[in-house]
């Protein structure tokens, strides 16, 4: 029988006695918990790591005094970013026959998120067999179902070697300006190493989790102890490695600020190894069963050619609400597919009347979250701590997390959970303490697990100035909103391609999305080479038509997100009125791109 993750179409009772819970009471509880955490400053409660805080962004994995001679040359394609997006762009361009590629990466090696994040317990929450790209091309099967960060980082390096991307890469380098030369039909690229590079095409994949952020807590600069962000873990201070063993914390009192996906992985190690651990929480994460296990060698040996694409496509189909003959991954993501529509919409449930669909979503959501909260009660011994760890919100208000050790850590006598919800977060930091509600918690070290500026790239923020035709900047061209064709390129900015989540479709398995984007860009560039096109640039009409499509298709998630507890999914409790995502979802979007390529769409962008 086919596996279906559609909501049930039969009537579901709203009677509390039949359900075993009261929907009205849960809605009221969710709203009260949201209201405890709403802050009028929204995203402004965080501080960008720059200026006096720049030390939090320094690279701990390279020699600090690195220098090299500036480059003054030309390349056919310059790729900005050495994470999986940039690596996939480089790999797919190589497969399309492009040999003259240069990559520029801020870090000291390939890996992106997995280069920077090497904290204890770092691990991917998507199954490795569908998350790690190009497994068959590399000839590798991951050692674990959910791969640890170091295995992922090494796989990124293997992609760089396999596709000869190390040959002409500039590490420890940031692009500081892109300027189009309409006479030479190429980009002038400037970097912080005084490079002056000319590139016919530029592909930008600077990442959606590349800029760490700090909370705007008064007194951060006055603390006399040790501090760092989890994305720059200081093993010189803690001892150990990503596998744990933080032996230098045995006599240290440690504060961890933040309880999102990173903290879920870090807390078990800190709780085991530190003399004292204080976990400062504004909003608890939902924590489901992880169930990681080593890869079965017999299963790995049985895999037939094309196995990864089949498994990856199967996962995407199911988590976006489609039907499949079998659930090949069968984990916490695929079992909650219907609930994920509240973050990543698709057209899979369009056959149900909207009111009925919403009612069934909500009941299924309540049931799932009740199970998550029951798990807290059955795991955490102290009643008050357990109550504070319960997530009171809809399932996709925050990214779900999975751990078999996080909740148990709060049973340790040396671990204290400090709930900051009624105080607007941490109140201040003194020379030797973290203060919440007037209570001082004296600590030797403060670790910030406060995440990243999600979805903010150098291009969209203006941090990386891009000057197109006539010197017009991209931020000027987009002053009344993004203008692209399919999210990849914009009129007035020839031969410039962007990978990312803007005006296209996304998924919880974001590397799959990046691969489809990289394939598309490589196909467009290959066709441009075949036609000897002068440049690639969408027409004004094609760009306007796609913008209208986005407006027409964009799902209205405002009401849902407005009821959510504050977090990065809903712009810290201030959701945007309009989505810039393709509302029919990633499967429909990928099929749209394939049809566009096959049915003459290239004529919209290639100028011969």
From TrEMBL:
Residues 1-22 are annotated as: Disordered. GO terms for molecular function: oxidoreductase activity, acting on paired donors, with incorporation or reduction of molecular oxygen, NAD(P)H as one donor, and incorporation of one atom of oxygen. Residues 1-13 have a biased composition (Polar residues). Residues 76-266 form the FAD/NAD(P)-binding domain. Pfam families: Pyr_redox_2 (PF07992). It comes from the Bacteria. Gene3D superfamilies: FAD/NAD(P)-binding domain. The keyword NADP applies. Its cofactor is FAD. Keywords: FAD, Flavoprotein, Monooxygenase, NADP, Oxidoreductase. InterPro entries: FAD-binding_Monooxygenases, FAD/NAD-bd_sf, FAD/NAD-binding_dom. The keyword Flavoprotein applies. PANTHER family: FAD-BINDING MONOOXYGENASE AUSB-RELATED, L-ORNITHINE N(5)-MONOOXYGENASE-RELATED. This is NAD(P)/FAD-dependent oxidoreductase. It comes from Streptomyces malaysiensis subsp. samsunensis.
